[in-house]
């Protein structure tokens, strides 16, 4: 992963454990990212201290309700009772318990990105590669273009008008009425041996 | 009399007032808002004894949504407000957001934390680095 300093670049999405709280009506959306070793909302919902009214977003960093309820008699309730006293008397573990009881993820974890961009880039390259192969085969095998003989604007090459007239004559000669019928004979002047209206805009197969 | 009638339209055009809301919307402020006034207003907001967690998160949401790093006195007032309504996690989240707001400017973050060091020592609040809140343990 490309990093500058301690920051992660080129990250698509956030590896944030989605809290399906009161806003999601307790339902999981299916878009959750679960990371081993980090807060798991499913595991947390088995906790009787889990607060359904908790919702935490990077855009709303101060949740209205705490992450864990802290029911009377629990360890968290005891620590929260000590919170009213001097904070210098709190140990590091108690401060950690207070923080983890109020929030699900620190800001750093909420900012953490995923490697989903690799999969997106891979799928995009697969589509581009197969499309390139298909276009190449169409140009060589179907259209009969040779390398360095015709490009994308193949109708600019010399002799293309003659090719079109040959195709028209072939259609007229065979009275071809298939699905790819050009039907250019409608526009051919058999008396004067030229197109009836050369400047008329015609779409192949339109009539 | 004729002179008075000739002047009357001009006088009414000058003295005629629009509605109050229109004049309020179109009028420029008497003096531009200065940075020190903004900082003092926020300090007064967070120092107010009625500022509970509800008002705190309203103000903090506004403050951290702004594309601006406030003076350390404002953050100091915020930390003391957290102490007043006994919310230690809110103080830590405030420090986290200060760190987030500083972004890549580690020198600015160091300066802000240097200014806040007496406050943290007074209140017994550890820094973000002390609680390892800046470290993401799982590498994806």
TrEMBL record, chain A:
InterPro entries: Cyt_c_oxidase_su4_fam, Cyt_c_oxidase_su4_sf. Pfam families: COX4 (PF02936). Keywords: Membrane, Mitochondrion, Mitochondrion inner membrane, Oxidoreductase, Transit peptide, Transmembrane, Transmembrane helix. It comes from Oikopleura dioica (Tunicate). Its main location: mitochondrion. The keyword Transit peptide applies. It is found in: Mitochondrion inner membrane. This is Oidioi.mRNA.OKI2018_I69.PAR.g9278.t1.cds. The lineage of its organism: Eukaryota, Metazoa, Chordata, Tunicata, Appendicularia. It comes from the Eukaryota. PANTHER family: CYTOCHROME C OXIDASE SUBUNIT 4 (PTHR10707:SF10), CYTOCHROME C OXIDASE SUBUNIT IV (PTHR10707). Belongs to the cytochrome c oxidase IV family. It is a single-pass membrane protein.
From TrEMBL, chain B:
The keyword Metal-binding applies. It is found in: Mitochondrion inner membrane. Transmembrane segments: none annotated. The keyword Transit peptide applies. Keywords: Heme, Iron, Membrane, Metal-binding, Mitochondrion, Mitochondrion inner membrane, Transit peptide. Component of the cytochrome c oxidase, the last enzyme in the mitochondrial electron transport chain which drives oxidative phosphorylation. The respiratory chain contains 3 multisubunit complexes succinate dehydrogenase (complex II, CII), ubiquinol-cytochrome c oxidoreductase (cytochrome b-c1 complex, complex III, CIII) and cytochrome c oxidase (complex IV, CIV), that cooperate to transfer electrons derived from NADH and succinate to molecular oxygen, creating an electrochemical gradient over the inner membrane that drives transmembrane transport and the ATP synthase. Component of the cytochrome c oxidase (complex IV, CIV), a multisubunit enzyme composed of a catalytic core of 3 subunits and several supernumerary subunits. The complex exists as a monomer or a dimer and forms supercomplexes (SCs) in the inner mitochondrial membrane with ubiquinol-cytochrome c oxidoreductase (cytochrome b-c1 complex, complex III, CIII). PANTHER family: CYTOCHROME C OXIDASE POLYPEPTIDE (PTHR14200), CYTOCHROME C OXIDASE SUBUNIT 5A, MITOCHONDRIAL (PTHR14200:SF11). This is Cytochrome c oxidase subunit 5A, mitochondrial.
């Amino acid at each position: 992963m490309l990093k500058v300093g301690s920051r992660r670049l080129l990250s698509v999405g956030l590896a944030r454990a989605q809290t399906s709280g009161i806003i999601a009506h307790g339902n999981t959306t299916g878009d959750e990212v679960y990371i081993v070793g980090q807060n798991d909302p499913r595991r947390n919902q088995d906790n009787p201290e889990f607060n359904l009214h908790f919702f935490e977003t990077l855009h709303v960093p101060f949740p209205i309700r705490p992450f864990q309820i802290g029911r009377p008699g629990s360890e968290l309730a005891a620590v929260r009772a000590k919170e009213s006293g001097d904070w210098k008397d709190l140990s590091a573990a108690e401060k950690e318990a207070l923080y983890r009881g109020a929030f699900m993820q620190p800001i750093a974890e909420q900012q953490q990105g995923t490697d989903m961009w690799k999969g997106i880039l891979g799928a995009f390259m697969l589509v581009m590669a197969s499309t390139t192969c298909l276009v190449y085969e169409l140009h060589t095998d179907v259209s009969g273009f040779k390398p360095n003989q015709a490009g994308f604007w193949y109708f600019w090459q010399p002799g293309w008008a003659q090719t079109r007239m040959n195709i028209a004559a072939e259609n007229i000669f065979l009275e071809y009425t298939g699905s790819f019928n050009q039907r250019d004979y409608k526009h051919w002047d058999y008396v004067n041996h030229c197109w009836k209206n050369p400047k008329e805009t015609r779409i192949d197969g339109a009539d | 009399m004729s002179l008075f009638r000739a002047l009357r339209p001009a006088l009414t055009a000058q003295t005629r007032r629009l509605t109050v809301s229109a004049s309020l919307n179109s009028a420029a402020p008497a003096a531009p808002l200065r940075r020190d006034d903004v900082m003092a207003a926020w300090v007064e907001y967070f120092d107010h004894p009625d500022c509970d967690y509800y008002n705190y998160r309203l103000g903090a949401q506004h403050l951290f949504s702004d594309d601006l790093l406030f003076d350390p006195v404002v953050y100091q007032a915020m930390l003391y407000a957290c102490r007043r309504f006994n919310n230690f996690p809110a103080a830590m989240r405030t420090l986290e957001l200060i760190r987030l707001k500083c972004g890549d400017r580690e020198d600015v973050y160091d300066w802000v934390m240097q200014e806040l060091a007496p406050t943290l020592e007074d209140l017994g609040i550890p820094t973000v680095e002390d609680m390892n809140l800046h470290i993401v343990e799982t590498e994806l």
